[in-house]
Amino acid sequence: MATFSDLEIAKVKLLKLDYDCSQDPVLFFNTMLWTFDPKRQPYHWPFKLFPFQETKIVNELVQAIEMGYDIFFDKTREMGVSYTVLGVLLWYWKYQDASNFLLGSRKEDYVDNVGGSKSGDDVSNKEESLFGKLDYMLARLNPLVLPKGFSFNQHRSSMKLLNPELGNAISGESSNPNFSRGGRQKAILLDEFAFWDNDDAAWGSTADTTNCRVVITTPGIKPGTKAKRLRFGDDGEKIRVVELPHHLDPRKTPEWLADQRERRSKEDFAREIMIDWEGSLKGVVYPEARRRVVGKFPYNPEWPLYVSWDFGLDGTATQWWQYNLDNGKMRLVDAHCKVNVPIQWFFPFFPNEQGTGPMDIDSMFTYDPDEVEAIHRVNWLKNAKHYGDPDAAKRSMTSKVLTSVRAELVKVGIYVQTNVKANAFYNRWQATKTLFQKGIEVNDTPGTTGLNAYLDAIDQASFPQRDATSQSTTPLSLPIHNWTSHPRTATEYLAVNFIVPNDQSGPGVVQTLRPSELTNQPFMINNGYTVGNPVNVAKAIRESAGDE
Hints:
Elements: H1 6-23, H2 25-32, E1 34-36, E2 44-46, H3 51-67, E3 71-75, H4 81-95, E4 101-105, H5 108-111, H6 130-139, H7 152-155, E5 156-157, E6 160-162, E7 169-174, E8 187-191, H8 199-206, E9 213-217, H9 226-231, E10 240-244, H10 254-263, H11 266-273, E11 293-295, E12 305-312, E13 315-323, E14 330-338, H12 369-378, E15 385-387, H13 405-411, E16 416-419, H14 425-437, E17 440-443, H15 449-460, H16 485-497, E18 510-512, E19 523-525, E20 530-531, H17 534-545
Parallel strand pairs: 3-9, 3-10, 4-7, 4-8, 8-9, 11-17, 12-15, 14-17, 15-16
Antiparallel strand pairs: 1-2, 5-6, 6-7, 12-13, 13-14, 16-18, 18-19, 19-20
Helix pairs in contact: 1-2, 3-4, 4-6, 14-16
């Protein structure tokens, strides 16, 4: 009976693993590849994919390549996206026939600096280039699983990597008006595309070269880039957009986020970390809001209904929202804002607690014809989930009695929910920017007069501006408090609390604020467990937020 040495057994196992990897790119990453991180010792790490890298990068990219469509990875910094995408291309190059790829970046040194940097840019670490990353991963493969006949000296040259066994080639090219002309590719990578010169010409020239163009980029600083127009569909071109925000990466802890906020300018942090394509903390608070679509988008009784509130001593804003189950966008069905009235003034806008009809109009309040029409538009809608200000314990403006907004709302069966982990302005701002970036539908059905005021408020909400000669070093972190504030903030409370139906990830623990103002009375969070008390929680929220 033949016997085998440990070395022979190990070789057989390795070759069996290599075959298994040829059938599964995820297995290839998790068992064969390494990655380099100069910020974490020991610097060289086995490439164990995070869940988001497997589902949102590897699986998405393989599907795009196989089915032949363009894909756009909209990412924050240091998510390992370039390494992961290149690992997928390396898997194709190593195992799959007819797998030729073209790698592009804005400068030659960022594509391949095998011969050293040719510009003033600091790309001295060869691994920083696209081919440098491929070299790093390829050099750490066991020689037994390299393509037959492969030699770095013979098959790796400037801007070129050849597979002599299958005939596959990965080529490189820097940004230029004739980028990619003269060949056919299985896919083309356009790395950091928002920073390219000749971006329009390069994008156009790739259309005839491949069926799959792969864009990886953070938001750029130049206005009107092709990358930005692709990201938001401004040119009408079909492309799959995969969003990769920082919270998907388990390495991006709250401590990491706080450190990044401290060591970057506000503009840089917004762009590089929070994926802010508008690139501005100055002027308009939500330039993304102009991506809305205004038209006949009426209430749909089959979809979930949400009401967002902002309660103020100088006014209250209320908005009726729905989640469009057909396209995944939020729809603003109606909106109303009123100053110098108590919370009870709003009750007739809602059905009664029994669901048998609208609440009665209190004779002590007056309503103009437009307000009466607005009441009749919305008070027959089904019961909604309500989101709003965590400071709902504040006393309502000109209240009939000294009582809290929360207590008055609960008397009529309205329970306001709030996300206690994300109530400070900065978090609401980022959530709302994302909401507007995805696009909203605004109902323009005749009679919805409150929506015009809402749109004006969102468009004109702005950050304060300093005179150029100002010596102040205090950061400008909050929008101006004026007539735009309550409609703006009501939308922010929707954005920071909303959870897509059937999505369990959510924004965090959501509290349903209950009526009692006694510190020994419990409130309920939305999963039904009793914890804490409402007054202390609301007070803690206000103190921790440092909010407007």
